What does this fold into?
Amino acid sequence: MSAVRLGLRLALAGGRESLARLGLTAFGVGVGVVLLLLCLTGQSALQGRADRATWRDSTSETPATAQDAALWLGVSDHYAGEPLFRLHVAALGPRPPVPPGLDRLPSDGEVAVSPALRRLIEAIPADQLGDRFPGRIAATVGPAALTHPDQLVAVVGHSARELRAHTGAQEVRGIQTGPPGDHSYTVAARLLLGVGALLLLVPVVVFIVMVTRIAAVRREQRFAAMRLAGATRAQIAVMAAAETGLGAVAGALLGLLGYLAVRPLVAAHLTHGGVRFLGSDVSVPAGAMAVVLAGVPLLAVATTAVSLRGLRVTPLGIGPETVRRRPPRAWRVLPPAAGVLGLCLAPSVPPPAGEGLYLWFLLPAMVGTVVAGPWLCLVAARVLGRLGRRFATLMAARRVAGDPRAAFRAVSGVVLTVSVATFAAGLASEEPGGNFHGELRPGVIEVYVGEQPAGRLAPLMDPGTVVVRVSAGGSAVSCADLALVVNASCPLPASARARGLGRYATIGVMSGELREPAPGHGSLPVRALYVRTDGSLAAEERVRTRAAIVLPRAIVNSRRDTVLQETRLQDELTTYARLVTWFVILVAGCSLTVGAVAGLIERRRSFALLRAAGARLAELRRIVLVETAVPLVLSILMGAALGSTASYAVTAAAGDPWSPPGLALATGLAGSALAALAITMAALPLLNVTTRYDAVRFE
It folds into this structure.
């Protein structure tokens, strides 16, 4: 306990330097706690949304939760591009399964709707929306069944005889409560959040390490004197842990308070897929919060313990561990070079061998850039030393070349983050369309009916409607007619006839091989209808409503649905990626600033001697600024080059056009780099204090 008390006294009564180190440690740990809790909040919000959506995946195989069964027909619909879920039900007994958010199943002629859908039905003409839900609104779907507050959900009651007449209806005896039947989207979103958390965690951990190592030389000198006075290694470790632990615990509490202050803003503005989350979802489980609040301070304490490794050799810190390491070798560039070369060559490999081949090269390319970073810093410093003519440039180049690993360590997370952001921007900047993508033309409504006789679909056969019929092994439709409603040219290429027209293609033209109709094809069942409208929202929704009345199970799409949702999600992911990138660069700037402060404290006598020898204060400031700028700019360029190469490989392998990331990303990266350098400049006034002539004295 005496060692703990002494460590706390050193932290609180060690002068301004100890208080500054304590404050920086608390700040670094607080930032790390806030970021980790926010990332966990995103994971929790997605999980809550997914849990409330599982009831829609109930099937006849769902375990029974009710005494009686119910007929169940779920349909995915849209209004104005927004998803709308329609559930047609019919009770087969007095105690059927009831979805969450309802007290009972709607009877024949009754409808239960979500609050947002009720507002739309009251404001929109019935032939555009309300007629899809025959009956009177008798109940409101509660929040327990809604993934977000503005979700559009309707539960429509029918008689058992009426609902059995529709194909696809199945008997359900229980409500799904486990993992959703198709949760790939949620898993992918959570995986992206996990990657984002990792990208945020790496620079924050580096920042914490840099903070806890500030003035490490002065602290090691103090502890070395204690070792010479008789203190043991264990006592030194306990004192160091107590000193750092005080700041770390204070930082954890500050981080918790900061998270509680930011959480309402996150709940009000956090969106995913363009929709808000429920306030109850924006939270962190108690167990995960406890792990973060305990784990981040432990990381800071562990970093301090590792920084004292020199004292484990001798009290003076002289031993094999303190010998200067050899400079990084050129072999470090081989892993990223091999990965980038593989990414460039992967699109040229024909399928099936070439499918997914780029994934095997993406990981070594990204990890390899971190491995190659120190060597590239060394090369950049040597080039700068040869080309530079000013005193400050030569001194900064010599400093970076002397320890390129330390120079790159503070910005190592920037490479990965910038590469991911550039990769996402490269994918988002590709132009949908082209000659053979098959997306719907504006104003065209696709009604996918599966296999239905043409007579049943007569109410949907407007003049100019293009009919795709079921053919052996594919779909029969005239290419000339198809080109009127989807983006395609004639004749169709062999790849389109065999594999469909691309990732924007509609369901009707993706169902097997496309072929010209043979004689007598008019008697074949209908697979899909393409109804042309004037492009107005009202006209499109009238067609959708007619389709819902004629065939409730029909899947109806418009250009608003197929492009709007994906474009919105891409824009959102791109925005998040840019925010993460800018933040990581700013945190890297803070790390570089902390490193600059530590360097000034450690080299105060050297800088004071330079100043006494005639070096101007502006030149000394330029040295620190160049030391900061070299690794930061280099890491941004490395990440941008890797991300652009990876996005090109992915789009080329998919057969999609590629265009480099736009000016917005480049401007954002440049602005973030300038902001990071501006943060570093905040430490430059410290030079005037640390290089006073009294620092030249040798006691």
In short: DSSP finds 22 helices and 14 strands in the chain. The first helix runs from residue 2 to 12. The first strand starts at residue 70 and ends at 79. The two ends are 33 Å apart (CA to CA).
